[in-house]
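subagent[fold] <- orchestrator: predict structure for attached chain, return tokens only, no commentary.
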Amino acid sequence: MSDGLSEIGRRSLSTGGSSVELILSEIPFFSVGLLGFGVMTFLLAMKKVNLLSVFLYASILLSFSGGILDLSQILTRGTANVDRGQGADSVRGIINTREVVFAFSVGLRFMFYWTLVGTCPRSERKPRNRNTQPPPSSDDSNLHSASWNRWGIQGLVLKYISLLLVILIPILQIVWRVSPQQSFSTTYIAESAIGIVLSTTFILKLLLNVYLSPRKPWWLQFRSYLAPIACW
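subagent[fold] -> orchestrator:
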């Protein structure tokens, strides 16, 4: 919900706020984006890229791109027009593109967490010997502590319902971000409610993963989830 409120504030700044305030609001996106570039380059060089890192850093880089678009619309309008709240219509295409980019950034962040809560913890991964054949696959071998399959049909239903809601998040975000200021409230409330439900579900799933983990003591496994939970 806090992300949505900050984006409402960003919309008002974009159309009628101080240029200094708007530029200052972009600093977190620029900072995290530059850090994301560095980390992603390192992961590519070390060949450590996986699906989780792709979702996470794609989200970061999209938010960085949104900040660049925001800065470009300020430069196009001029600081005087931005301070007076004028000239927004002349850069409406840039503003709408920025909003779509931010929407996909939020969607990829939720996709990162959806993938994370079902990913086998590193402590439960069996090392592979390149000189030997991998063991035959079985249903039991995939039932790690984070697996949705542990819960049977209920787990699979929850898994794919949450996936559908994750896909719905950026769609609703695009709708309320590019809609007129006076007509986006219903869509925004629906998107915020879905975001709260998904966030609660994912946090509970991470805590459940810790409870089911064979790694003892429990706080060793919780430590690996501490950063994602804290950054929510």
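orchestrator: received. Logging for downstream: Residues 2-121+141-230 form one domain. The chain has one domain: 2-121+141-230.
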